[in-house]
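Supplementary Methods, section 5.1.

A reviewer requested that the exact input to the structure prediction be made available. We therefore reproduce it here, unchanged from the version used in the analyses.
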Amino acid sequence: MMLQEIEEQLAIPAVRFVLRPVRISDAGLFAMHAGDARVAEGTSSIPHPLPPGAAEAFVARAMNVGSTERIWVMDGLASGMPEVLGVISLKQMDRDQSEIGYWVAPAFWNAGYASEAVQALIAANPLKNKTIFAQVFQDNPRSARVLTNCGFAYLGDAESFSVARNARVQTWTYLKKMA
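The structure derived from this sequence is encoded token-by-token as follows.
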């Protein structure tokens, strides 16, 4: 089944911030936050150390209208918080399915921002998904708790390669059936 091109990306309101499309001006804050080893090692795709130009390449990819992945910034500026708290994305798969991914800058950990972003994205369901999958490293139980608190069900164990760790890492896989 062919993947459909994703329609124009809109901002999605959350309680304390807004999920908005990526802007060119986000590159500096992305480089600072994603350049932190704690962020990079919690993802499968962010290298550490972050090479020159990586943040700009991420912004270009995020702004590509023809992409099958949509990336939003957790932007707290309107509420007096920092402009970039973290990032959340949906990577479109076939059969009306996507994979969700997210990271929050360490300065904002343990404040519920990831849960709030996941809940807002699920409520908006911008890609009209029937199912959303997620995968977290087993040494990151807080991200697993975000998913279970947002209604994701445990599916099984797997493993994924982490670029920052240069190793395969054990993961937990989750799914959320959409209403």
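Confidence is low (pLDDT under 50) at residues 1-6. These observations are discussed further in the main text.
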